[in-house]
Please model this.
Amino acid sequence: MNKSISGFDKWGLEGFISDAIIERGWKEPTEIQIESIPHARKGRDIVGQARTGSGKTAAFGIPILEKCSPTGSIQAIVLCPTRELAVQVSDELSILQGKKGLNIQTVYGGTDIEKQAKNLRNGTDIVVGTPGRVIDMSKRGHLNLETISLFCLDEADRMLDMGFFPDVLWIFEKMVNRDQTLLFSATFPQEVLDAAEEFLDDPVHVMSEDLVVEVPEIDQYAIRIGRANKLWALGRILGTSGEESQILIFSNTKRMVDLIVERLAKFRFRSVGLHGDMPQGKREKILKSFRDGSEKIVVATDVAARGLDVDGITHVINYDLPDDTEVYVHRIGRTGRMGRKGESWSFATGGEVQLIDKICSTWGLTIPFVDAPSLPKGTDRDFVPKRDDWDEVSDPFGMVRVRMSMPSTVKTRREIVDWIISEARIPEIAIGEVEQDSESTIVEIHVEKVAYVIDIIKSRKFDGASLKPEIEGA
Model:
């Protein structure tokens, strides 16, 4: 083909690759490709910041394909965090090489290792794989990492999130004859930056302008709630969401995903968990059942939910708020797709209210704090019982303010404190400040003693009067 394509043709790419780009109909390179490809073609190490969908596979793929020859010996390896991404990258490279004839093989867990080893022995030029299987192949002698000259690490932050980074470092250390290293990541946690500094040689740092995030137009709400009652609020949302709803619940840890699923089952809500510790086959089965609607509620970590594209999701619930405001936007973007109605709910403890403010100010959002949904008509019992949550109403010193119907004209502060100490038999250090006005008295009581003290005050009378204790701010 002799067609010229503005943008790509100025680089003078190898003919097979140039023809393949024309076949794909690409006209102009993306931002990350413009920034990365010229440097990578010169052999420079690259640290690239770009998300999925920014064209980053071609950004590292085109230079790799140009540098490799169809010799049947492994010259390059691309490391990916998941089987799905490895297959996707391999397919993309196969298309981009056109008729060059490179043998590109994928290696990943969950399939016959001997079959994959046989494929490698049949003459492989480029390997695309996941860390665990690459290490297995290396230890069994099927893959000699020491002879490979070109190494690419894709989605390094996901490797870290999924607990694969020790494996990545092991692979780095074994590839002693690397001539070039390409590292791509959407974000750069400190561990990733440390690895880049140690294993890369004077890298060029490039960034995609595609990091701009589009905020979905959905109804967003926040509930100020203590950790002890998050499940109660979740029960209210699930119980009022309707039978046709599909709900995605986000937690920050694998352990909490399992706990939420277990606790929801206790209260007769069926849900399934999704996180990186699950076997690949099980994760794929869960994703399929969520897409076809046979599973209605999925509880997931951010890592496991990447690539979870289900148009019918009606609710996204942030059981745990993410620390990164951009992660919040990606989470809520799972709902309200294809013009459908969607809503998001975020649970914020007292100390996390400022996180909601930060999200609003960063992305220009309005996220009102509201009460949990009311019980449906005809329902008189909560789906999940509400619990006393003293921690949520305590101050940074662990003191809870208890208001009592004792006007300042009746008893002095000292008399009230002495009576509480005497009746409840608690040390005086468990009692803080005392405030009085013409209608009531407020006593600060330490969070570890407050439930017991309230029960005592409720059961006793002070000079014949009931004090009617109430938690202030509850």
